[in-house]
Design brief:
By secondary structure, the chain is an alpha/beta fold. The protein is built from 13 helices and twelve strands. It is 44% helix and 17% strand. The strands form two sheets. Strands 2-1-3-4-5-11 form a six-stranded parallel sheet, sandwiched between helices. Strands 7-6-8-9-10-12 form a six-stranded mixed sheet, with helices on both faces. Helix 12 links the parallel strand 8 and strand 9. The radius of gyration is 24 Å and the shape is elongated. GO terms for molecular function: DNA binding.
Length: 335
């Protein structure tokens, strides 16, 4: 009877994945376990299936990209940066729209598990750090845009949300604002949490008490921002400025204020994040935090492809990019 990899794993007391890693000389297996597995292989006379091994090691020259919502403008420039860098290095990309559903995001990871693609880039993923680390520790190539995960096997490109939010709040306070409303994004998104945390800290640094009634969730969508600010107004909350965690939600605030005849910035200042193209064309022009989205996509792709080809950048897997506060008419007004 021919021995199989699961027979080796059972006798060695390890998983079939660990046996596979030993056969492929992976660095993820410690020396003690490696010696144990090799000894069992020798004792059982196990001979790996050469064709199966070749199939597993064959490169597809394709990278998957999972975005939470392909309709969100923030993702467009990132995808363009990913695509152009990938093409320049002879790789193709597959775009996967998770539609703000974690279940879809997990389903798309099967492309990675069944070797349809060589690596996966997660853009503002709703997966937890531990879930992403687990994927990487199983031997799959994964990179993340939008957050910092402290792990040697995960490449990350992210913006310093805390610094960006501090600049926004400092600008508003300098113009006389103390009652500042905050519209957060998706409740499971790391960006939402980091920007809310940064908002609370920035208020504290400016000696302003945090009022939880001035925070609502807008799901990173224009309609979500519209609904959030309408809910806040319906509760009778008083505020002189609105900071939305992305531009799409800020545009929703614009729509609500237009309906209610609230003037921007004379009555309420508005600031967003991302500097999407329409920011310069609405009236008044929207103040926003500009992130180098194209560069983030291109940089992530370059590093992930390098990671898939002998780990040249093992000592520098994490890359923090700088954002810029663009002050325009929607907030450039002292009260």
């Amino acid at each position: 009877m021919t021995n199989k990899i699961k027979d080796v794993s059972a006798k060695a007391g390890v998983s079939p994945t660990t046996v596979s890693r030993v056969l492929n000389n992976s660095k993820l297996v410690n020396e003690k376990t490696k010696r144990k597995v090799l000894q069992v292989i020798e004792e059982m006379g196990y001979i790996p299936n050469a064709s199966a091994k070749n199939l597993r090691s064959k490169k597809t020259m394709t990278i998957g990209v999972i975005v939470t919502d392909i309709l969100v403008s923030y993702n467009a420039d990132i995808i363009k940066g990913i695509e152009n860098m990938a093409n320049s290095l002879n790789y193709k990309i597959i775009i996967c729209d998770a539609q703000d559903q974690k279940e879809k995001e997990i389903d798309y990871l099967n492309l990675l598990y069944n070797r349809t693609i060589d690596g996966m880039i997660l853009v503002t993923s709703t997966l937890s750090d531990q879930e992403i680390i687990k994927i990487a520790e199983q031997g799959y190539n994964v990179g993340v845009i939008g957050r910092n995960i402290d792990h040697d096997l995960v490449s990350c490109v992210y913006n310093d949300n805390g610094k960006a939010v501090q600049e926004v709040i400092d600008h508003l306070v300098e113009n006389g604002h103390k009652e500042i409303a905050f519209i957060s994004g998706l409740k499971d998104a790391v960006d939402s949490y980091e920007r809310l945390e940064g908002f609370i800290y920035a208020l504290k640094r400016n000696n302003i008490s945090f009022n939880p009634d001035l925070v609502d969730n807008g799901d990173f969508s224009e309609y979500g921002g519209y609904q959030a600010i309408k809910r806040m107004i319906a509760k009778g909350q008083s505020f002189t400025a609105v900071f939305a965690a992305n531009d799409e939600m800020a545009l929703g605030v614009y729509n609500a204020f237009k309906e209610l005849d609230i003037k921007i910035p004379e009555q309420v200042a508005v600031i967003g994040v991302d500097n999407i193209r329409v920011c310069s064309y609405v009236s008044p022009r929207l103040s926003t935090v500009a992130q180098p989205k194209y560069s983030m996509g291109a940089l992530m792709t370059e590093k992930l492809i390098d990671q898939m080809n002998e780990n040249k950048y093992t000592s520098s897997r994490t890359f923090k990019v700088s954002s810029t506060l663009l002050i325009r008419e929607s907030s450039d007004y002292k009260i």
